[in-house]
Amino acid sequence: MSTSQFGTPIENDTEAVVVVGSGAGGGTVAYELTRRGVPCVVLEAGAWLKPEDYENDEWAAFNQMAWLDQRTTSGSWRVSRDFPNLPAWIVKAVGGSTTHWSGATPRFHEHEFKTRTYYGDVEGANLLDWPITLAEMEPYYDKAEIAMGSTHRHGRPPLPANNNYKVFANGAEKVGYKYYATGPYATNAEPYDGRPASIQDGFNFQGDKSTAKWSTAVREIPRAVESGKCDLRTQCQAVQVTHDAQGRANAVLYVDSEGTLHRQAASVVCVAGNSIESPRLLLMSASGLHPDGLANSSGQVGRNYMRHLTASAYARFDRDVRMYRGETMAGIIADEARLDTSRGFVGGYYMETLSLGVPFLAAFVDPGTWGREFTEVMDAYARTAGMWIVGEDMPQESNRVTLNAGVLDPFGLPAPDVHFDDHPNDVAMREHAWGRADLLYESVGADATHRTPPYPSTHNLGTCRMSERPEDGVVGRYGEAHDVPGLFVSDGSQMTTGASANPTLTIVALAIRQAEHIADRLGKGEL
Amino acid sequence: MADLKPALVSLLRAAYPHPSFPDAPYERTADTILGQLDEDLWHRLALEHGLANLDTEALADPHSEAASAYLRSIEDAEFFAFVRGVTVVTLYNDHEVWDLLGYEGASYDKGGYVERGFDDLDWLPDPRIEEYDGPDALQPVADADQPTAKA
Predict the structure, then answer these.
(1) Do A149 and A156 contact (CB within 8 A), yes or no?
(2) Contacting residues of B for A172, CB less than 8 Å apart
(3) Mean model confidence pLDDT for chain A
(4) How far apart are CA A201 and CA B112, in angstroms?
(5) Which intervals of the chain are annotated as region Disordered (chain B) (predicted)?
(6) Cα A287 from chain centroid (whole Å)
(7) In this model, does residue A496 exceed pLDDT 70?
(8) CA angle, A208 then A210 then A214, to 5°
(9) Which residue among A111, A169, A341 places its CB closest to the CB of B140?
(10) How far is A30 from chain B (nearest CA, A)?
(11) Cis peptide before A139 (omega within 30 of 0)
């Protein structure tokens, strides 16, 4: 496939809002602006895969949509050993990583916007309170849940219990957990918003052929393209954001699939390339005015890279579970998603049902293992139940995305390097979570539980963080760069801290809020 | 070139021992590995030399402790690491292996699993699917962790 244009063309020298990326952040900003009549050019590095294109086959889909451009890793995290060129498991396609997300939509807690206040001075952690509060976010959480069709919210019914959930929820009850349910998940339990109810066909990580699962590829982007205000250009990768003599963002340079460089004039630039590509783009946009990278007077661009705690547990039983039948994720336990330092760490974590097929379980259950220890796990596949653990990891200045000038991408641009070391708090939380998973599964008769290390990162956060003061972070309370008027960051990289919740709902809520702010200021002639 | 396949199959059977598996999936995986040798001289050199010198007698019974001990002794050899890297994404992507392990794969074209057993587990009671609505609201912050408690 090659560069394609969708929607209503906008001239390259016509100043528009230029949105880099079409995932949870970029897709939402583009939709919210175009429906208010604001013209947007959306630059998407990947192709537009349609539901009929999605492959219900784990490796085929991975090779179809995963972001596989050259990346490098460093640091002590195990991903760097097992998957040295795959630090993150994200999507390069219209819809970005909402194409393969699982759909969990918990909100942040109030205290998770104020971690410096609540957690105190944690050694080695670069904690900071967000400049915004839960109270400010609540109306936008409502809008995001309604847009995405979250179950258990705003009158949406719950998903039914699948086999994996039956094991998970019975275990939760046995160990005394209370706050478990089949959601909230942004997958339709009944028809909603023009999309059908789940047929329990699984393969959420491979795009959802039935479209029961929300993504910007099936909701926001098609609507933006039909608005008459959106020019979507696929397989166009942004490579630089430029500014004028006054320091205002004024254009985006991008490369098409033929390798040709183009310039799109911009009134506003919204960067939403996920937390590796967004800081990479700013670092590649250094200028005389911004010698350390665009919008980087704080030195925080690329730093405080977070990836959530993550771990998994797979339990073997003596009877069939068949976890793969039904939605990949459709169960959540919130009891541990709280601050209680008597457990030996700050922050909290969710437990969420998770199923992998045979191909991915083999690759990820314990990368590199072989022999009977490994094949025993695989032989028990049909009798296995699984969960994912997602919790808050500590922002650390040394965990960062940098340009690796020694490794070039196909365009000849420096590849991003992702450096990560676990913080001791992350390690303590992971051990606690594995222990609780063992107890939960043992309470319903598990023969054995396997502790699976983190997969390549799906929740990439924090590399352009939001701060009250310009010296503490990259963007302010609406995601606008402290240093560069007209430059906004619209994805999860603006997160000051990561909280325990899956990030997509919060990214969408922030993007709805940001788009409202941009439209308001454009309307007043302030941008 | 000597036929490398028999030695490679015996290596695969011992490194990934599944009592229920016939030879066919291992043979197909061996074909995939050997098919990649033309792409990479380093792997060709390593694999040809490694397999030519493999102690196939030690691997005669793939489920034996002798086989396991021998494989541990060559764990760090380049050719064995290469074999494992390809095998883990090939053997377990083999549809006969899916059948043997009880994985049914894609279901969209069959209407999903909604009428085909997504909730047929019957050895545990049906759990609650709604959120808890009892008297004890989740307390997001323990009393001792309130900032005022620390001050």
Answers:
(1) yes
(2) 127
(3) 97
(4) 4
(5) 127-151
(6) 29
(7) yes
(8) 60
(9) A111
(10) 31
(11) no
Interchain CB contacts (distance < 8 Å): A and B = 193
Put simply, the answer to whether A202 touches B140 (Cβ < 8 Å) is no
Interchain contact, B84 vs A163, CB within 8 Å: no
Q: How far apart are CA A218 and CA A207, in angstroms?
A: 10
SS3 content of chain B, % helix, strand, coil (to 5): 55, 0, 45
Both tokens assigned to A152? 């258990």
Are B108 and A161 a contacting pair at CB < 8 A? Answer: no
Q: Does the structure's ipTM exceed the value 0.85?
A: yes
Q: pTM of the predicted model, to two decimals?
A: 0.98
Q: What is the distance in angstroms between the Cα of B72 and the nearest Cα belonging to chain A?
A: 9
Judge: domain A4-523, CATH 3.50.50.60: yes
Sign of CA dihedral A419, A505, A346, A175: negative
What pLDDT is recorded for position B38? Answer: 85
Distance from CA of B84 to the nearest CA of A (A): 8
CA distance B9 to B23: 8
**Is the minimum CB–CB distance between A51 and chain B shorter than 8 Å?**
no
Does the pLDDT value for residue A405 go beyond 80?
yes
Report how far residue A95's alpha carbon sits from residue B127's, in angstroms, rounded to the nearest whole number: 34
Asked whether A514 and A479 are in contact (CB, 8 A), the reply is yes
CB-nearest partner of B71 from A203, A320, A371: A371
Average pLDDT over residues A236-247: 97
C-alpha distances (whole Å) from B39 to each of A100, B32, B33, B42, B44 are 31, 12, 11, 9, 8
